[in-house]
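Severity: low
Component: inverse-folding endpoint
Summary: output formatting inconsistent between runs
Steps to reproduce: submit the following structure tokens with default settings.
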């Protein structure tokens, strides 16, 4: 087996925590993952992982080899990026990390147009509402919603604000009554993201400035599409991105409420690593994304 490929598989096993998770990430079978690890152990003449039916752990040498392997793979990635930067033609795999709803509704729809412009680029869109590490994911760029923290090693480019809207299903409002002012929310079932602090309050733009409104969550979920489905079924009031709810509002499956008190928009940033030279595929996608979003009213 190819040693570098086996090293990459081994690194994924360590970072994903299991053969199965590594196999899913690499789109290969769990059996093939095992063969790669066994090949390395045979080549090195030492065990890298302690494996049982329930869990796996690194041996002392396995930890050393993991750290060295990751460093080698990172250097190879840097060398490949430098090689790409020497040619004016965008090519290769462009890996983008994005929050789920934004990726589904704002990024995925424009990828076909980008691929027509740059057919030698293959886009790998990684959707996750959990914070991911760009280096671990071998990503070229990442889209983040909200204020940034601990991004000193990255270049942050502001995109359009992420605007939300408060809605409820018509039959929910008929049964539970209208909402005229933010204080009415305390008497309604609200649906929101699972968050120990922010999930229990909604930040709105009041008549005299920003206000924080306490809400009673009848349902907390870590996925916007699930919240949307629950709202359409009549479970309660939802505050979600406009682009996620636009079709439901147009078809009157959801009705906007409290329109004089709009949710505070969240900043959106496009992040790239500061220590990597921008390759043609990165430069062209940044320019393309900015131009496409400029034609929209909201993300």
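Observed output (run 2 of 3):
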């Amino acid at each position: 087996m190819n040693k570098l490929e086996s090293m990459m598989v081994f690194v994924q096993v360590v970072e994903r925590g299991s053969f199965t998770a590594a196999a899913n990430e690499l789109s290969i079978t769990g059996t093939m993952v095992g063969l790669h690890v066994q090949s390395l152990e045979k080549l090195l003449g030492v065990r890298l992982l302690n494996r049982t039916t329930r869990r796996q752990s690194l041996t002392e040498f396995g930890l050393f080899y993991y750290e060295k392997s990751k460093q080698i793979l990172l250097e190879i990635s840097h060398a490949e990026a430098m090689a790409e930067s020497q040619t004016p033609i965008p090519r290769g795999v462009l890996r983008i990390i994005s929050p789920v709803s934004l990726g589904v509704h704002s990024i995925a729809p424009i990828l076909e147009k980008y691929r027509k412009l740059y057919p030698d680029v293959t886009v790998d869109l990684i959707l996750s509402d959990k914070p991911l590490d760009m280096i671990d994911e071998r990503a070229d760029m990442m889209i983040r919603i909200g204020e940034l923290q601990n991004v000193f090693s990255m270049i942050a480019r502001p995109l359009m604000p992420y605007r939300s809207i408060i809605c409820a299903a018509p039959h929910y409002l008929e049964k539970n009554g209208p909402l005229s002012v933010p204080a009415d929310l305390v008497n309604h079932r609200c649906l929101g993201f699972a968050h120990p602090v922010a999930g229990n309050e909604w930040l709105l733009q009041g008549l005299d400035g920003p206000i924080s409104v306490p809400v009673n969550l009848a349902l907390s979920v870590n996925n916007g599409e699930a919240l949307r489905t629950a709202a359409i079924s009549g479970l309660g009031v939802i505050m979600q991105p406009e682009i996620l709810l636009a079709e439901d509002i147009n078809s009157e499956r959801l009705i906007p409420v409290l329109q004089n008190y709009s949710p505070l928009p969240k900043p959106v940033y496009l992040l790239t690593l500061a220590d990597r030279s921008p390759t043609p595929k990165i430069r062209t996608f940044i320019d393309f994304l900015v131009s496409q979003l400029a034609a929209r009213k909201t993300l």
